[in-house]
Automatic annotation (TrEMBL):
Belongs to the thioredoxin family. This is Thioredoxin. It comes from Minwuia thermotolerans. InterPro entries: Thioredoxin, Thioredoxin-like_sf, Thioredoxin_CS, Thioredoxin_domain, TPR-like_helical_dom_sf. GO terms for cellular component: cytosol. CDD domains: ybbN. One of its GO terms (biological process) is cell redox homeostasis. The gene is trxA. Keywords: Disulfide bond, Electron transport, Redox-active center, Transport. Residues 8-126 form the Thioredoxin domain.
Amino acid sequence: METIIGGADSGAAPAAGDLIKDTDTRNFMADVVEASREQPVLVDFWAPWCGPCKQLTPILEKVVQQAGGKVKLVKINVDENQQIAQQMRIQSIPAVFAFQDGQPVDGFMGALPESQIREFIDRIAGGIGPSPAEQLIEAASAAREEGDFATAARAYAQLLQEQPESPEGFAGLIRCYVELGELDAAQEVLDQVPVAISLHGEISGAKAALDLARNTGDPAGSEEVDRLQAELDGKPSDSQVRYDLAEALLSAGRREEAVEHLLHIFEHDREWNEDAARKKLVQLFEAWGPKDPLTRPTRRRLSALLLS
């Protein structure tokens, strides 16, 4: 399967149209006060020299467009419109006010992250719904739960078109390729992870899943499991044999049995091979992820042993 990162067309954002405009003191009544009687209007007070304004305004524009016409955005340069800024008692910028029915009803100052801006607009406009990126993550997660990893991979690839530094996008795509057995493709995606997010928990978990898949290789035959089990029956205190059996069981997809052997090693021979059993369990937790039904109870049992 060819690596599909960067191959999806995310589509262009809808045109701003009448949703976003600049105004001034002379047109404030028409563009803000009167317009807010039809639908909520956000007023963004900014200035060309304001660094945080340059961060905030593009996010405001993006979320307003995604709201699908439920709210408008009006921008006012305070340097050119000091009278209205004084009337609104603007103390610092950026400052955003929400108008409804001709009156200011809410607002905030400073540059907020997109998630908080979305919550603010959602509160004002009422149910603008998840962003396109959030919709893609939901669609990808649903496809993964159904075992449709190819569809999930396409959704994650499209997410990376929307958000090129999305940890969820990179990690999800890597995990999909691992599930599909396309380990070289998974490594290719991992190699493209930006440095800024390389230590993110999602990325670490996906890397652990890839490392685990590479180390386990092809499923072990029943003969190998049986052989190691017979050897362990004769030498029940041999941690190396028990560890090898756990690895073989993991390769065979018998995760619960493998976990039991790793926990047994940690409980009875904690320092064996530089704490190899605990390290293997931690790798499994990262690879499986916190939502895996085996992760939480096993992590809880390991913690209990650590405290005992």
